[in-house]
Task: inverse folding
C-alpha cells in the first residue's frame, strides 16, 4: 500500500470516527460527511487515472455532483432546524416531536 493510499484511507477512517464520536452539532456531522465524500472522490480519481479506463472516468464526477447535492440539502436542513429549534444540536432533534 502506497503512502497516498494509506493517507486517503486514514482520512476516510478519521471522518467516520469524527462522525461517530462527535455528534453534538449538525454542522460537524455535515463536515464529516463532506470529508468522507472528498476522500472517496480523491481515491476514485487516483484509482481510475492509474487504471486508465476511459469508461469509468465519469464516476468521480458523478460522485462530486452527488456530493454537491448532499451539501445543498444538508445546508437547507441546517437552516430549517436552526429556524425551528433555535440551534443545531443533534440531541434536540427528535422524530417524536412536532
Result:
Amino acid at each position: 500500500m502506497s503512502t497516498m493510499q494509506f493517507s486517503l484511507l486514514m482520512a476516510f477512517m478519521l471522518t467516520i470516527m469524527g462522525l461517530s464520536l462527535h455528534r453534538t452539532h449538525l454542522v460537524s456531522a455535515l463536515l464529516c460527511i463532506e470529508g468522507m465524500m472528498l476522500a472517496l472522490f480523491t481515491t476514485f480519481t487516483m484509482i481510475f487515472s492509474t487504471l486508465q479506463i476511459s469508461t469509468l472516468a465519469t464516476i468521480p464526477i458523478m460522485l462530486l455532483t452527488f456530493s454537491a447535492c448532499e451539501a445543498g440539502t444538508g445546508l437547507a436542513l441546517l437552516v430549517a432546524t436552526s429556524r425551528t429549534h433555535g440551534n443545531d444540536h443533534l440531541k434536540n432533534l427528535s422524530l417524536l416531536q412536532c
